[in-house]
User: Fold these one by one.
Assistant:
Number 1:
Amino acid sequence: MSSLEELSTQELQSLIDRARRILAERKEGNRPRVVDSFREGDARYLLEYVKCGRAVSGKCRRCREGELHGPYWYSYTWDGKKTVSKYHGKTRPGLAEVKENGNG
Ligand SMILES: [Zn+2]
């Protein structure tokens, strides 16, 4: 990680903008955060940050502070009546053997 002094004014400004956006999103709270998505056939795949089951009771410090868990992959398909969601965990589903970029 290079020192902040080495960055140009523009780069610093964009860092501030990014940080502001992240902070705003954290304050915003409840909704899941989608960081990636793709479509395959009838299914839509989303990589989301989510709250865990202990979020409601306030027992999870991570959720309380707006950190969320994941991101995890979920798929959403339409069964004719309703959307069916399925949890896939950390591994990108659907496509064969996609290499992770190892920042987890
Ligand atoms: Zn949690």
Note: The CA atoms of residues 91 and 100 lie 8 Å apart.
Number 2:
Amino acid sequence: MSRASDVAVIGAGVFGAWTALQLRRSGRSVTLVDAFGAGNTRSSSGGATRVFRIGYGREAFYSGWAQRSFSPWLDLFRDARQELFTRTGVLWMARADDPSPDVTIETLRRLRVPFETLDRTQLEQRYPQFTFGPITRGVLEPDAGVFMARRAVQAVVRQAVKQSVDYRVAAVRPPNGNGSIDALVTSDGDRITAGTYVFACGPWLPKLFPAVLGDRLHSTRQEVFFFGSEAGDRQFAPPAMPAWMDLAGGVYGLPDLEGRGFKVGLDHHGPPFDPELGERLVSEDALQVARLILARRVPALETAPLLEAHVCQYSNSWNGDFVIDRHPDLDNVWLVGGGSGHGFKHGPAVGEYVTAQLDGRATPEARFTLAAHRRSHERRIF
Ligand SMILES: Cc1cc2nc3c(=O)[nH]c(=O)nc-3n(C[C@H](O)[C@H](O)[C@H](O)COP(=O)(O)OP(=O)(O)OC[C@H]3O[C@@H](n4cnc5c(N)ncnc54)[C@H](O)[C@@H]3O)c2cc1C
């Protein structure tokens, strides 16, 4: 069966789902296709939870994008009548030699985002659950928090379908050649016909477009662990416990939400990982690292039982900037990805940006262009 629409979006992760919705809102007819379904376990958007914050250190550009994305997310959850955001607060922990809190504070002040600064004594008084070790100060964004990620992406797709986006589960074969493409073919032999094709396939993009993205995006294995506190103990759940991150320590944590456990995420880039074929069994080494972090940081959980663990993958660009650009050889094909370890919160802004690019009414951001994406690796954006 052939379907004709103004735009076909391939990939219903957070980038593709929001892009489909925003394109539809602009009046276009849209087809949205995903190989395994929106928010599937293999996708980068398919985790239980993702942090929303506005502070971004030197990368104030993404603070602006996060701020722009916040209301569309909350509006969507309100329309969907689902509680998919918890205002846990997000605590940025910093060491003495780290200037990023100062820059973050400047940005938050400029954007009129509420925040609190806490010195070591205040941190210890407010959060006795932690042993702060090398941490000397913190910046707390009280209005920031945590999305229920998988369900949030599925809510975006449901909203898109309500607004007549044609959504289906099918694997799309990558196009080849030059010039404009007429149609895409799916693995079941169906044809998808559209004026423009947006590939928002996250960590699959380098495999689909090896010549263009093969050495620009790198998928890495990332492991997360959920530990259980003692029965009746609420000190690791909101409001006592915020989401927190220690970028220099390569770790972040989330409070216990929905009784799932206290989440510890290892943020250092892991080894290369295939999003489709990779086995998602966590490694003993990573579990030991997570336990070591607990012992040092959250001693009451040192021997807490592991309740759940997951392997997910970041789709990393050279520095953490997204890739949003037209394919260099295919005039009506756009590539949208490189969400790295921080893309989830920006779904609405990504969709808005892609829509404006397709309208031809916005100057491209240099940072998103293929030309700006180096083949080296220098992580700068967290
Ligand atoms: C462990 C972990 C923690 C993270 N924490 C945060 C956080 O706290 N805050 C934050 O903002 N971000 C966070 N991120 C980053 C964020 O989750 C990602 O940047 C974002 O989800 C990327 O979304 P995406 O739509 O680009 O890719 P994906 O979600 O991977 O979606 C791509 C989709 O394309 C589909 N697809 C692939 N190939 C095809 C094909 N041939 N045909 C049809 N469909 C196809 C796939 O099935 C998939 O659903 C985290 C990521 C991980 C892994």
Note: The mean pLDDT is 96.
